[in-house]
Amino acid sequence: MLWCTKFFVRINCQLTGTRSVLKEANTIRFKPQFSSVKSNTPQVNTPHKRIPKRLKVFFACLPLIVLVPLTAMVAFAFADPASDIASQQSQAQSVQAEIDSMNSQLEAKVESYNYANVQLGNIKTSITDNQNRLSQAQATLGVTQERLDKRISEIYRNGSSGILDVLMDTKSLNDFLSNYDMLSKLGEQDRNDVEQIKMLKSQIENAQKRLSDEESSQQSLVSQLATDKDSIQAGITDRQQKLDSIHMNIAQLQQQEAAQQAAQQATEQQQLEASAAVSNNSGSSGSSGSGGGGSSSPPPANAGGVVAIAMQYLGVPYVWGGASPAGFDCSGLVMYVYAQVGIYLPHSAAAQYEAGTPISYSQLAAGDLVFYGDGGIEHVAIYIGGGQIIQAPYPGTVVQISPVSGGGTYRGACRL
User: Fold this and answer.
1) Which of 333, 334, 300, 305 is nearest to 318 (CA)?
2) pLDDT digits over 218-245, tens only?
3) Rounded to whole angstroms, what are the CA distances from 381 to 235, 369, 385?
4) Is 379 exposed, middle or buried (0-12, 13-18, 19+ CB in 10 A)?
5) Could you tell me how many helices (H) and strands (E) the chain has, helices first?
6) What is the mean pLDDT of the chain?
7) 300-415 — its CATH code?
8) What is the DSSP code string of 352-403?
């Protein structure tokens, strides 16, 4: 145990900034129990030195060192859901702003991608047209070349068709000049045809190379734009998943907050009922002789338990005519929840209002029904306390918590 004592003494020295306790600890020794050498000197039992006072103070403070962080952890675990909801909602707004910005970027990038594809299509069309022209030019050049080759072959077999041949075949000077001029023009025309076709072929080949380069460049642009588009889309998907997670956290926190409010409201209601019972008992003898009619008061609020049941179905989709966990409409949710506490209601908001006792807005308590509508009772929700309701609003939504004002035009309330 000596090493343990020294260990705690060292910690105490570090806390107090002195080393005097270490000197005291070094003097602590246990009495030897055995000795290998016999001695005639009588052994005296020396009493152990007492633990220093500073060490006792350290051990006395040790529970505080442990309890303070533990208390902080417990306080964090029971943090106020409202502040957490505000923080999560702020974070959700920030993420939504990022998504909106990225959606704008994506829209611009998609339009650039679409336009680049249009240009690429035009280039491919031009390449196809140019290839057709090149094929035609090559065919024409081939025909002309074949004609020249045939003429050269005939000249080689029959001899040259020079001035002498023209002179011998003519009967007059006019015939000679005419034949000679035709022969010269024929040779010059052949040469011009070949040169023009060669020039056209060269121009088409140059255009083909230019278009091929443009196609390659445009294809690279399209690929880059597609990559950018996919990257932005992936970022939006990631942010959307994060936003969905935040919304789920908010729903859980709202559920927790509503449950706390419902529990608090139920407790307060029980206290009010107990106080009212005491007052009635104390004043029953004095009021027995009094008479007179008065307005009937609503029954006490004792349906706060339905709030916790309704909370279990947060997120269930709205289904027209639905009255099961597979899907609810407004009155179907109320009917299903109240049936679980033994109160059976019709599947109609107006009929549910008639089944209860009307109450004023100021009398609302957890578990009461709140009704809405523009031309009559068209919607019903369950009041959960704190100015909030749980409802199945309309197609495309889910069972959710909303402010009382979020149900529509307020028509009244009742207590079952």
Assistant:
1) 333
2) 888 888 888 888 888 888 888 888 888 8
3) 38, 6, 12
4) buried
5) 9, 8
6) 74
7) 3.90.1720.10
8) HHHHSEEE-GGG--TT-EEEE-SSS--EEEEEEETTEEEE--STT-BSEEEE
Residue 403, beta-bridge partner list: 388
Q: What is the spatial distance between Cα 139 and Cα 125, in angstroms, rounded to a whole number?
A: 21
User: Taking the domains of the chain in order of start, what are their residue ranges?
Assistant: 1-29+51-71, 84-260, 300-415
pTM, two decimal places: 0.36
pLDDT tens per residue across span 341-391: 999 999 999 999 999 999 999 999 999 999 999 888 999 999 999 899 999
Three-state secondary-structure class, residue 45: coil
pLDDT at 88: 87
Please give the C-alpha separations between residue 336 and each of 225, 343, 344, in angstroms, as whole numbers: 53, 9, 8
| Per-residue pLDDT, 309 | 93
- Residue written as token pair 């022209």: 133
| Mean pLDDT value of segment 147-176 | 58
Q: State the fold for domain 84-260.
A: Helix Hairpins (1.10.287)
